[in-house]
């Protein structure tokens, strides 16, 4: 089951991936989740890749940033529904680490960026 998102949101994610290249980009998918666990993405938030060191192969989002974002979204009836990140010069498949840290119920969008262009986008859920 794939999350629903508009072409505009898709383009924003692609732009973020291209901009961060050759490093990984990462960000938050914001939206709504139905009782049937259907996800609708209404906006995205770029997050700073806090990983110190090889930013091309890892990403890390500040937990405090997520906490503040949740507090901001809650009164608007929105929530964090997923995470997007890019794989520079690697396929859009989950790395061992991605798999290990996946939170059940969240949508994970991975973009493969080759030579600065997004060539593949895939979504995963645990
Ligand atoms: Zn990854």
From TrEMBL:
Q: Which InterPro entries match?
A: JAB_dom_prok, JAMM/MPN+_dom, MPN, VirAsm_ModProt
Q: Entry's Gene3D superfamilies?
A: Cytidine Deaminase, domain 2
List the keywords (alphabetical): Hydrolase, Metal-binding, Metalloprotease, Protease, Zinc
Where in the numbering of this chain does the MPN domain appear?
3-126
Gene Ontology biological-process entries: proteolysis
Q: Which CDD domains match?
A: MPN_like (cd08070)
Single GO MF descriptor: zinc ion binding
Do you know which Pfam families this protein is assigned to?
Prok-JAB (PF14464)
Q: Which PANTHER family match?
A: CYSO-CYSTEINE PEPTIDASE
- Could you tell me what this protein is called? Mov34/MPN/PAD-1 family protein
The species this protein was found in: Fibrobacter succinogenes (strain ATCC 19169 / S85)
């Amino acid at each position: 089951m794939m999350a629903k998102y508009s072409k505009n949101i898709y383009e924003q994610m692609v732009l973020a991936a291209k901009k961060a290249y050759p490093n990984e980009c990462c960000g938050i998918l914001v939206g709504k989740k139905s009782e049937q666990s259907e996800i609708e993405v209404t906006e995205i938030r770029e997050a700073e890749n806090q990983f110190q060191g090889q930013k091309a192969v890892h990403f890390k989002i500040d937990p405090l940033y997520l906490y503040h974002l949740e507090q901001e979204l809650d009164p608007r009836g929105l929530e964090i529904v997923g995470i997007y990140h890019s794989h520079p010069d690697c396929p859009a498949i989950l790395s061992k680490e991605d798999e290990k840290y996946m939170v059940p119920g969240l949508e994970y969008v991975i973009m493969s960026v080759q030579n600065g262009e997004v060539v593949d986008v895939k979504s995963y859920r645990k």
